[in-house]
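#structure-requests
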Amino acid sequence: MLPQEIIRKKRNTQTLSKEEIDFFIQGITDGSIVDAQASALTMAIFLNGMNVEETANLTTAMRDSGDVLQWHNVNGPIVDKHSSGGVGDKVSLMLAPMVAACGGFVPMISGRGLGHTGGTLDKFDSIPGYKTVPDNDLFRKVVKEVGCAIIGQTGNLAPADKKIYALRDVCATVESVQLITASILSKKLAAGLDCLVMDLKCGNGAFMDNLERGQELAHSIVNVANAAGTKTKAVLTDMNQVLGYNVGNALEVAEAVEYLKGNSNDSCLHNITLELCGELLLSAQLATSLPEAKEKLQQALDSGRALEIFARMVSALGGPTDFCDNPWKYLPQTSIVRPVYALSSGYVQNMDTRGIGLSIIEMKGGRTTPEQQLDYATGYSEFCQIGEFVDNQKPLAIIHAQTEEQFTRAADNLRQLITIGSNKPQLSPDIIEKIS
């Protein structure tokens, strides 16, 4: 087979066979197919799509490009959650230890930032010493002994996806339903999961910026995953504003620790986290109803058990043993921390959440090239929420910047990206829909 003929076939809207897909993914894995060819195929898929059978074949080929983990002698269900990507989305950081505290085992294989969204792996890279890419033996050990481990793809877990993932980020093919499905599920199926819940973001800060596209992706993931033997649900959640109060890698880690300590009062973040955790407990038969699941999860928070597990995970993967005692002893910080105020007082009507994510990239908190080194310290804290009143006392956000020029640019961005009005707007529901 010739790579260029496979690219041509998909470019011409024809259906690829399993053998052609397997050949191409094997070539990406062993390097016989170069980045330019891989990028060309992803663009052809982005423009012309794939049917369900092609998507399933792409997913399993990417899964089988490396190791598929087996979980022997683990006394409990193997479960995980994945988000389609949002701005300020740090749910994974809380969910993994909360579910582990309730009896689940969470081998969470996460990714770096894509497009305008932040990546879970980039957040953990802001913790000194934390091994985001351990070997499989350490990964298994931490999951078994602690209950959860949040890592990136090791060299042997879905290596084809690791290469394609980086190319999609810089070649404008991130939003393809078929590529998203295959990317997410190749990693998750390689982790040997029993159950998966998908947090599918919908809104102006999500890759799926309308409900119809969100539903399309949800059905794609649920159908392919369940067919592959992993019990999967999708929860469509709102992404028309930043999630939580902090945006930026180190800042979001700090907010997650405060949440696990019981010090967060952002209702949207709490509602979405509990809902996703609860659905996982139900699927894994660790609870018989959603109210029971949420009660168990709240007890895990109130008792400090979830925080303890998070701290043990950080330590077991090479981070500081006392990280949760004082995260800012270790997390990087900027030289400028200063509020930005709206030009007029009023209620926050809406925000261009995607634009806010892009502004983080301008502050070097996200990538424009796959190899770029991030500034983990930059971002925003105390971010305003839709419906809040802002004036010369209540800021739009606190900007964490490295230079005056960077601060000024970020302040100008936020004033343009956040709309202020005289009337308090109606709020959207946090949970939009569930698909089983």
